[in-house]
């Protein structure tokens, strides 16, 4: 496993549409492991392929609770229900946070790393994370959806006034 370099706001790759994964080979499995490790290093809840410079439809999510770690290939939202207004951030925008509107519940279909079809019913934070990461696969960033006036810029910890 290895930590991959993150891509940040302003990098064109974050605006591109990722391609479907047709074969889940060793390279994809290694990518999935690396993405999980990279996400953990930066204490993220989710990470999508383009954020490590790979335009493939793969996302990882970890809510740091039991059974809340997922690697999903070619995820698609097939159902949405309700609305939640939530605070959101992104590893590609290390110091920015804002309020966005997300569905309260979603159903997502995807493949797991064994190529098996999985159907995930999610609500609250998991629904939010799934929507955020799937947006990345379509070149959509949370700042596109942020409620006007709610984007906060937090100073990096190293910096002092
Ligand atoms: Ni993000």
Work out the helix count. 3
Identify the overall geometry: globular
Helix share bin: 10-25%
Rg for CA atoms? 15 Å
Which spans have pLDDT < 50 for at least 5 consecutive residues? none
β-strand percent reads 25-35%
Ligands bound to this protein structure: nickel (II) ion
Which structural class best describes the helix and strand composition? Answer: alpha+beta
Mean pLDDT: 95
* N-to-C CA distance: 38 Å
Q: What string, H for helix and E for strand, traces the elements in order?
A: HEEEEEEEHHE
How do the strands line up in the largest sheet?
1-2-3-6-7
Describe the structure.
It is a single chain. The protein is an alpha+beta fold and 161 residues long. It has helices at residues 26-41, 124-137, 142-145, and strands at residues 46-48, 58-62, 69-81, 84-90, 93-102, 105-111, 117-123, 152-153. Helices cover 21% and strands 34% of the residues. The strands form two sheets. It has a five-stranded antiparallel β-sheet, with helices on both faces. A three-stranded antiparallel β-sheet has the order 4-5-8. The termini are far apart. The site of nickel (II) ion has 5 residues, from helix 2.
Summarize the structure.
This protein is an alpha+beta fold and 161 residues long. Helix content is 21%, strand content 34%.
